[in-house]
Amino acid sequence: MTHPACQSPGLSAHQPASRDVRLRAQALSVAYAQAPILSDLTLDIPDGEITVIVGPNACGKSTLLRSLARLQRLSAGQVLLDGKNIHHQRSRGVAQRLAILPQSPTAPEGLTVHDLVSRGRTPHQSALKQWSRQDARAVEQALERTSMGPLAQRNLEALSGGQRQRAWIAMALAQETDILLLDEPTTYLDLPHQIELLTLVQSLNQDSGQTVAMVLHDINLAARFANHMIALRAGEVFAKGRPEQVVTRENMAQVFGLKCQIISDPVHATPHVIPE
Amino acid sequence: MTLITTTASRPQRKRIPDRHLWLLLALVGLALLSCLSLRLGLRPIGWNEIWASFVAYSPETANHIVIQQMRLPRLLAAWLGGAALATSGMLIQGLTRNPLADPGLLGINAGAALGVILCIFLLGISDPAAFVWVAMAGGLVSTILVFLLGGGQRGSNLRLILAGAALSALFLALGRSLLLVSQRSLDVYRFWVLGGLDGIEMQTIFALLPIFGFGAALALISAFHLNAMILGEDTARGLGLRTAGTRTLAVAAILCLCAATVSMAGPIAFVGLVVPHMARRFSGADMRWCTLFSALLGAGLLMLADLVGRLPFFGGNMQAGVMVALIGGPAFVWLLRRNERGLR
Amino acid sequence: MTHWTLRLPFISLRLSARGSAVALALALMIAAGALLALRLGTYPLVAGTWVAILGGGGSDIEQMILLDHRLPRILTALGAGACFGLSGAMFQTMLRNPLASPDVIGFNAGASCGALVAIITAGSAATGGTVLLGALLGAFCTAVLVVGLAWRNGLQAERLVLIGLGGGFALAALSDLLLSRTDARTAADMTKWLIGTLNARDWQDVTLVWAGLALLSPVLVWLHFPLARLGLPEDLASGLGLRLSPLRLTITALGIVLATLAVCSAGPLPFVAFAAGPIARSLLRNGQPALLGASAIGALLVLAADTAARMIVTLHLPAGVFTALIGGPVMIWLLVTQLRKGKL
User: Within a 13 Å sphere around the CA of C168, how many CA atoms are in the beta-carbon half?
Assistant: First the structure.
C-alpha cells in the first residue's frame, strides 16, 4: 500500500519494476460484432500512481477500463491482477481489491446517499454479515472524505450533479480497494466541480496510496492530475509515460488530429494544450 | 460513451441503405397483403371482379357487396387500427422510457371497456354502433384520470406507470364484476371485447377518420419532440422544445389514436406493446423512422392476422386480436434471436 | 432514519426503525385478517368455539366448516398471496422495471396454458391433480424456453423481458385459441380457472404452497442480499463482485417456481404480483427490494379478496375480480398521498 512513488511526487516519473505491478493487461484484444475495438494492448497500471487514459472519441478508452475491471469479454489476451488472470479469480475477491465506477451511473429510485455508499461494502459483506463495525466505519470515512456527511440522509434524486457524483465516488471509496478505476468521473460537472473532484481523487491517492486509473476527456486536466498517462488511438496504445512525455505537439497531432501549441501551465508546470 | 459510439456507429453506417430497402419491402408487402385480403376469404373472389367492384359497382352482384361492404372496410380498419396502435405504442415507450409500456397503460382500453359495459348495464343499449362513442368517452375519462394521478405534466415515469396500471386493473375488475352479475351484459359485451375487425361499417370508419388524422398529426409532432428528448432534456430545451408540453402532446396523440381504434375494433393487445420493438430492429433509434416503421409493421401485422384468421383452418372467424399474438409472438422472438448484437 | 444494528460473532444485521414498524404492523394485520376471515361467512362460528373445534370438539358441521373449508382456504390464500408478492417483487427488482411482474413477462401465461391443455386432454377425467400437473409442466416449459432463448453470453435482463413478453402474448393467444376450440362446458370451467378462484381448497393445496414456501425461504433470505444490489447499474454490480448471470438465473428460477406455486393453488389472480412490490416499497421507503413486505402485502391482498368473494355470496364472484378491486384503490391512495407529500 505504501509505495514509495506516492509519497514524493518527484519520484512518480519512476516506472515501477514491471514484476510487482498489480494490474496489467497482456496482449489484450476486444472485438464487438467482428469490429476490433482494442487490439493487442499490453500495458501496466503503475501502483500508487494516478494513471489517466486519454484519446479521441471511440478509441476504446472505456472498453480498456472495463476490460481492466473484468467487465468486458476479451477476444484475446488477459488481464492480470496480482499476477493471476482476473477472469479466473473470484469476482468477490477481485472486488475487494479493485473498484470501478462506470460513466454516469443511475441509481434505483428512493435511495439515500448513505444507502448508496453502503452498497459499496458489498464485497465485504454476506447475507449473514450484513453490517459489521468495519462496514459502518468505512462508510463513515468515505462520507467524510467526500464531505458528503451532512447529506447522508438526503435522497439521491434531490442532489445536484456535483453532489451526486461525489456520492458515487464515496461508494467506490467505501469499497476500500487498493485500486480504483473511474470512467470519466467529471462528466456533467462544471469546471470548479471538476477540479474539486479531481483534487479529491489526488488527495486519496496521496494520503492512502490508492492506485487510480481513470478516463478523462480534458487533456489539460489529465496532464495536471496524472502521474502517468496513456494515449490511445484506434484501439492501440500510441504513447505512454509522464504527462510531459505524452502531451506533446506531435502526439496531439497524431492522436487527436489537433494542431496545437504546448505551453507550460504557469501554476502547476504541467503541459497545457492551446489549440491553434 | 466510447463503447456506445464505437459499437453503434459502425453497423449503422452500413445500415442506412438497409433502412430504405426495408421501407420499400414493407410498402410492397403491405400492397400485396392488401390485395390478398380483398381476394381471400370464405370464398375467394377473382381479380377481375374486385376491380369491377371499384369501377363499376353494382348493388345486385353479391361479390361486389362482399368486397365493398365487408372486405374493404375490414382492410381499412386493419390499416388504421394497426398503424394507430403501433404508433402509440412507440410513443408511450419513448415517453416512459420503459420497453414494457403499452398504450393500454394509459387506461384507454380499460376505460373504453368499462364505458361499454356501463352503457349496456345501465342503459340497456346493445347496438354496437353506439358503443363507438361510449368507448371513446370511457377511454378519454380514464386517460385524463391516469394522467392527473401520474402527476400531470411534471410527473415521473414511475408514477405514470403505477397510476396507469392501478387504474386499468381497477376499471377492468369493476367491469368484470358487473359482467358476472348481469348475464345480459355479458352476452353483448362478449363480442365487443374479442377485438375483431368483422362487422365494421364504412360509416364508422369515415366518422373516426378525422380523429385518426388528428392523432397521427399529433403523433408525428411528438415523435419529433421525443427524438430531441433522447438527447437529454436540456438539449431538447435548447432546441426550443417544452418538455412538459411534449408529455401532454404525446398523451393526447396516444389518446386519439387508441381511443379511435378501441372504439372501432375493441381492445387489441400485442400490437402496441411488441410491434415498436420489431420496428426498432429495422429502423435504428431515430424516433421518426421508428414511428414510420411501427405504423407500417402494425398495419401489416393486423392485416395478416385478420387474413389468417379468416382462413378455413381457423374456422373462418378467428379474432384478429388473438391471431396477432399467435403470429407476432414467435416472429418477435425470432427477430430478437436473429439480431446478432442483442439489444443495442 | 433510525437504525438498529444487531451484531453477533458471525451475524450482523441492520434493521431500520421504519422497516420494523411496518413489518410488525403488517404481521398484526395478517393475524387480525385471518381471524376475521375465520369468523366471517354464512355459517357463524364464534371465536370461543374455535379452540374446542380444533381440539376435536364441536358439531360435525362446525368441524367440517372450520377444518375442511375455512382454514385451508385462508391458509391457501395467505400462501398464494405471499408467493405472488415475492415473485413479483423479485422480478421487478432484478429486471429494474416496475412493469416486469411475472404476469406481464409471460410466466403466468405458461402455467395457465399448461393447465388448459391438461383440462382439454384429460376431458371429463380432469381432476385437481391433472390441472396442477399441467400448470407445472406449462410453467416449466415456458421458463426453459424463455430463458434458453434469452441466453446469449449470459442472461441479459432486457432480453429476458422482451422474449418473455413475446412468448407470453403468444401463449395467452394460444389459450384463447384453445378456449374457442372446446365445448361450452369445458370453456366455462377454464374461464373460471383463468380468472382465479379459491373455491374448494383442501389441505393438499395448503401443503403444496406452504411446503414450497418453507423449502424456498432459506434461499430467499440468502437472495435478499444480492437482490438489493441488482438495482444498481450492471457494470457497477459486477464491479462490486456480484456474478450477474448465475444470480439472474437463480432469481428467475425461484421467481418462476413461486409464481407457479401461486398459480397452481389459487389460479392466475391478477394484479397481486404487480402491486405487492410497489405498495411494500412505498411503505418502507428505503430503496430495498422489500421481499418480506411484498409477501405480506400479497398475502393480505389475496386474503382480503377471497374474504370479499366469500362474503358476497349471492353474486358468486371469483376472488380474481376482487384482487384488483381492493389492490387498485390502495395503490391509487398511496399515489395520491405521496403526490401531496411531494415524494416518489
Answer: 22
